[in-house]
Amino acid sequence: MIYSVTGKLIHVESNLAVVQCGGVGFKCLTTMTTIAKLPQIGSEVTLYTHLNVREDALDLYGFYDMAELNCYKMLTSVSGVGPKVGLSILSDSTPERLALNIAAGDSKALTKAQGVGPKLAQRIVLELKDKVGAAEIAEGLSETPAAGLNLQAGNAGEAISALTVLGYSQTDAAAIIAKLDPAMPVEEMIKTALKQMAFGR
C-alpha cells in the first residue's frame, strides 16, 4: 500500500525512525541495521516500507534499502516469525550475511538474534532454503552463459544462492555475478550485485 516514504528525519530511537512527509510524521519501526545507516536528524531520507495490518493497529515498517525489505518479507513469511522477530534477526545480521547463513544451512547463526531459538532457526533455514534448491539454481544458471566462469561452484555459486534467498531470480543474479571477478569474496559479490540491481545495470 505504501511503497516508501521520503521526507525529513525528525526522530530516531533504538527501534524506530520518524520521517516527516507533508507535515505528517510517519513512525517507521525498523532494525538496528537501518538505524546505523540513517543520516543526521533534519536530513532528508527515504525508507522503503511494509504496512502490517492487524485488527487493532496499522504498523509501518521502514528499511534503508530494498534488500533489507525483501529479506524482512521473506523472513516473516515463515511460520513463527512475526514482525518483532523479523526485525530482531535483521538487527543482528545484514541481508547479505543472513542470505549466506540460510544458503549454507547455518541455523546456529540465527539463534544470536533475540527471540530466535534453535527450533525456529532451523525452520527458517529449512523453509527459505527450499526456495533455492539445487535444481532451481542449476535451471536458472543454465539460461545464462558464463563465458568460462563456473557459476555453480565456489564463491559465485554461494553468491547466487544468497541473492535468490533475497528474492531475486537465479537468471538475474547469475547475469550480474558472471561479470564479477571470481576471486572476489562472497559478501563483496553480493553487495556489488545488490547495488547494480538497485540502480540498474
Topology, please?
Layout: E1 4-12, E2 16-21, E3 24-29, H1 32-37, E4 44-53, E5 58-63, H2 66-76, H3 83-92, H4 95-104, H5 118-129, H6 134-142, H7 154-165, H8 170-177, H9 186-199
Parallel strand pairs: 3-5
Antiparallel strand pairs: 1-2, 1-4, 2-3, 4-5
Provide an overview of this structure.
There is one protein chain. This protein has nine helices and five strands. 46% of the residues lie in helices and 18% in strands. By secondary structure, it is α+β, with helices and mostly antiparallel strands.
Q: What is the percentage of strand-forming residues?
A: 15-25%
Order of helices and strands: EEEHEEHHHHHHHH
Unreliable segments (pLDDT under 50, ≥5 consecutive)?
Answer: 132-152
- Distance between the ends: 27 Å
- The residue fraction in helices comes out at 40-55%
Q: Give the class from helix and strand content and strand pairing.
A: alpha+beta
| Largest sheet, spatial ordering of strands | 1-2-3-5-4
What is the alpha-carbon Rg in Å?
18 Å
Largest sheet: 5 strands, mixed, barrel
Number of strands: 5
Q: What overall geometry do the principal axes of the alpha carbons give?
A: globular
Average pLDDT metric? 83
